[in-house]
Here is the input.
Amino acid sequence: MGRGYDSLVGTWDAVVDVSNVCWSPQLPPQGRRTPFWHRLELVLDAWRELHGNGVRYTLVADDSLVRALDNPAEYRGLRDNGELLVRPVADSLILDLARDSGLHVITRDHYVDYRPRHPWIENSPEKFHCWSMTDGRVRIEPLGIVHASAQTISRAIESKDLQRTRIHSNDPQHRKILGTRWKCVNMLCVEAAQWQDQLLTWPLVTPEGTVLCPSCHRPLLALGPRDPLYEAVVEHRESGAEIMRFPLEVNSPVTVGRGAAIKGVNLAGDQDSFRTAVMRVSRQHLLVWIEDLNGATRRMVAVDLGSRNGTAVERWTGAAFDRPKPLPPSRETIIGSKDRLILGGTVNLRLSGKHYVTYPGKSEPAALAVPFWPGAENNATVSG
Ligand SMILES: [Zn+2]
Here is the structure.
C-alpha cells in the first residue's frame, strides 16, 4: 500500500460486500451470528482511516439481509436513495463492478465458485481486503486470495458423492460433536464463506470419530459449545424420503436454498435422486430461525425470500394437516412445532423433535422442547 497512491482520486474506491460485513461475527458484537448494520460503519471507517475521506464506496447487499438485520430502516433508506444496490445474490454484481470499474473489494469471501467466470480474481489478489479485530480495533487486511486448482473448484461446486456416517445422538461422543460449533478453515471451501462464520450443516464423522467438512472433507476446527440447538428435517414431499437434516441455533437465521454459492444450507447437496424436486427450490428460497420468547418458549419463524415457486405452510390441526396455504413473500410467518413448510411444492421442511442443550450441567425448562411449543391455533403472520 504505497502512500503515493493515496492522493490519486479513485485509486482506493471500493465495492463492499455489505451482507458479508453485517453478518461477520468477527466484528462487534463479536460472536453474534446475526447481522448488525453498525458493523458496516466500523469497516467503512477503518477503510477511510487507511485511505482518506475522499474514497467512494459502492455498497451491494443480498436482498435477504434485510430480513434478519437489526436495523432494516437504515438499509431501506440507503436502498431507496440508490446508495445501496440490492440483488437476490450480490456476488455476481460485486465481481462485475470490481472487474469493470477496477474497484477494490471489501469482503471475507474468496468467491471460489466464481473463479471460472472471473479468472482475473487470482491475478489481482491485491484488490481483495478483509477485516479483523486487533486490540479492540477493526483493521483492514489483505484477504489473501490464493489459486484454486480446477479440481478444488469442481469439488466445491458439486459437493456430492460423499460417504455419510450416521451420527447417533445417544452416543456421548457424537452428542458432543453435535453440540459443538464447527468451522471449515479451508478458505477454498464454500463452507468457509458462510456469513455466520461456521458450518451450517451437520459435519461428517468417520468411524474413528474424526470430524470432517461435508463439502471439502478436511478436518474442521472446533469453536466451542453451541447455543441451545434444534434441528430441521428436509424431506422429498412425494416419497417422504429424508433429503437432509441441519442444525438451527436459537436466534441464528439460516438461508435455505439451492446451489453451493447461496451462503446458507444447500439442499442440492448430495443426492441425485431428489434432483427434480430440489430444482423447484430457488437459490435463496427461505430464511428460517428459532426465536426465543423471553426464555419462556420458542418458535420457528420463516420468511419466503421471493422464491419463484413459492413456499406454503401445512398446519397440523391435531389430527391431520390442513390444506397448504401460501406464505406471503417477504413476511414473517410463525411455524408451529408440528406444521410443515412446503418449498416449491416438492420439498417439505419441518422441525425434528430434537433439542440439545450443549453447556455441560445446564438444562432448560420443558416448555423449550419442541413438543411443548404453542400449536397452530396460536400462529399467525406477524409482521413485515
Ligand atoms: Zn470445507
